[in-house]
Write a structure and sequence with these properties.
By secondary structure, the protein is an alpha+beta fold. 40% of the residues lie in helices and 21% in strands.
């Protein structure tokens, strides 16, 4: 084998190796984001529920969590999604519904006090757990679940005003008994479709 031929073979091998490595990296990225593997959504948190009790992710182990991040001053999207969650649970067979805990987490802790959460969540389901906390605690929880949010002021509104809305992502996450991400439901999912998706997961995984 000539030296020139050997160099060509080594060059081809190098290109193929780099390409394979890149593809494997991309596959790993796709798995993490598509739900075909364990997505990087969820993690430790420490918050306070509507009864003033400290709650962590460990309190929900052994059950499925149906979790949504929003805020009580939300004029439309949040109440709509929370109502869908409540209706979806009511659509389920009671034996399956009992294995799922609906959870609402505030991204507006400055206004969403324990009392505000306590007055809010019963409107959507009698078993819904509402969670809030300090700014640091809610920020950490939102970051763990890859939730985007930011204050939004009307034109001309001073930035220290309490008359603001919260821009935020709107997904309902279904977390497994082990606290790991299972799947999500997009905004606009019908209660019947959400119930069907939950039931499929619980029946498959137990």
């Amino acid at each position: 084998m000539s030296k020139k031929t050997l160099v060509i073979i080594l060059a081809i091998a190098l290109v193929l190796g780099v390409g394979l490595t890149y593809r494997l990296m991309m596959m790993g990225s796709e798995t993490a984001s598509s739900g075909s593997g364990v997505a990087a959504i969820g993690g430790p948190f420490e918050l306070v529920d509507q009864n003033g009790q400290t709650r962590t992710e460990q309190d929900f182990r052994g059950k499925y969590m149906l979790i949504y991040f929003g805020y009580t001053y939300c004029p439309d999207v949040c109440p709509t999604e929370l109502q869908v969650m409540g209706n979806a649970l009511d659509e389920l067979d009671p034996a399956i519904a009992s294995e799922v805990i609906p959870v609402f987490v505030s991204v507006d802790p400055e206004r969403d006090t324990v009392d505000a959460i306590a007055a809010y969540v019963p409107h959507f389901h009698e078993r819904m757990v509402g969670l809030t906390g300090t700014l640091e605690q809610t920020t950490a929880a939102a970051k763990a679940f890859r939730v985007y949010y930011a204050k939004a002021y009307a034109d001309g509104e001073p930035k220290d005003s309490e008359s603001y809305l919260m821009d935020h992502s709107s997904f309902v996450y279904l977390m497994g008994r082990d606290g790991l991400f299972v799947r999500h439901f997009n905004y606009g999912t019908a209660p019947q479709d959400m119930a069907k998706g939950i039931a499929e997961v619980v029946k498959k995984n137990g």
